[in-house]
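Margin note: ligand = uridine-5'-diphosphate.
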Amino acid sequence: MTTTTTTKQPPHVLVFPYPALGHTLPLLDLTHQLSLHNLTITILTTPKNLPTVSPLLSTHPQIHTLVLPFPSHPLIPAGVENVKELGNSGNLAIIAASTKLSEPITLWFKSHTNPPVAIISDFFLGWTQHLAQHLNIRGFAFYPSAAFFAGILNYCWGNLESVKVLDVVDFVDLPRSPSFKEEHLPSVFRKYRESDPDCQLVKDSLVANKLSYGFIFNSFESLEGEYLGFLKREFGHERVYAVGPINLLGPESTDRGNPVTDSSGNVFKWLDGCPDESVLYVCFGSQKLLNKKQMEALADGLEKSMVRFIWVVKTGTAQQVEDGYGVVPDGFDERLAGRGLVIRGWAPQVKILSHRAVGWFLSHCGWNSMLEGIVAGAMILAWPMEADQFIDARLLVEELGAGVGACEGTATVPDSEELAKVIGESMSEKGAGVKMKAKELRRKALEAVKEGGSSLNDLNGLIEELCKLKIQ
Ligand code: UDP
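Resulting structure:
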């Protein structure tokens, strides 16, 4: 087993991101930090995911890569290696397929002259905790999500039989004993079917995280200290590191490893011409495509709200476009020109949010988006849809009072009048109290990553822990 003797050589750590952008980007931000602290790092990726890693490799040419072929799976079309091409429902197959990487990783490890002493892997790849034990190295689970969410998910798996028959689940063990409707539980749990072998692999993988030696969260103490404390008690040790917002720990990383499109120049030119805090930014993450009716209702709501906005519309496949997914109603851009801007495809979200003209964010409450909104001091109008988003929205809107509800549900078509009203009120004097709390949260987030702040302390604690490890 690993020991705690200090070594002279910097420790070698294998980093294994999960192939979904919301998971990969924050783990790459953490890797950037580890690399700045002189650790030897290998990143495990697959050929089609390599471009996401490339910007980090350019910044840190000393980082090694382990590029393994993406394992085949009957439900994943050839050439697809990332959840962004499948949507949230693709997670089961991608997690199941990933488990086939155990053997090639073992072979690589055994043939390495300086094999890693630890593996830091995304919690969706919890099966790597078994691998870490097998290889006699330490496993660290990385959560690009909330500690609150981890507490809920652990409870769900730990009480599978009772939870799966309930319409409303009371999480009595958790701080504040929250209740969630079945449809608001984590998607990865809701999709579980006992008879499906993929689901078994996913369940085993997620449950195996409890074997981790340490847990790393892209979160911070003053955002959810109660839940971080709860997890420490649950795990029975203090190796729970809240190092978020991770992208703020280092030098500015606004594009988060993704190309800035040509149209971005126009976006910033347009924003420069807008008054301070006058623009609503609308984006639902890297995976979600709204259906035709949702697109129409949202377009209508934005038009009726009379506010300035930027709307990021993810583009779908030819078939999805034909079915109306992600299609902006005809004439919308032209009619709203000057007041609103539609970005099709990928937007430099962090950079847009940090522009002085942006003050509000209609978001699905993916954890990264939420953190990015918080950091920007934007007031979030929450439209949680799936995954961990209902839990994130609960934390923000109900517990912290720093956001408002706008809509909920993955297929819900909002009433455009109501949506326009929520937007209009949030951006008027009526929203001032919540907006103030959002700004207070921004202050706390910035504090956490400063010298002496909780996240920087936790990062240092993590690095110290890694530096103590040596291979046996
Ligand atoms: N993102 C971006 N541009 C886009 C869409 C998404 O930069 O056009 C980034 C966003 O800043 C965030 C991540 O992609 O860092 C999405 O992660 P999140 O957890 O918010 O949602 P998910 O995509 O996992 O649903």
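The chain has two domains: 12-244+450-468, 262-447.
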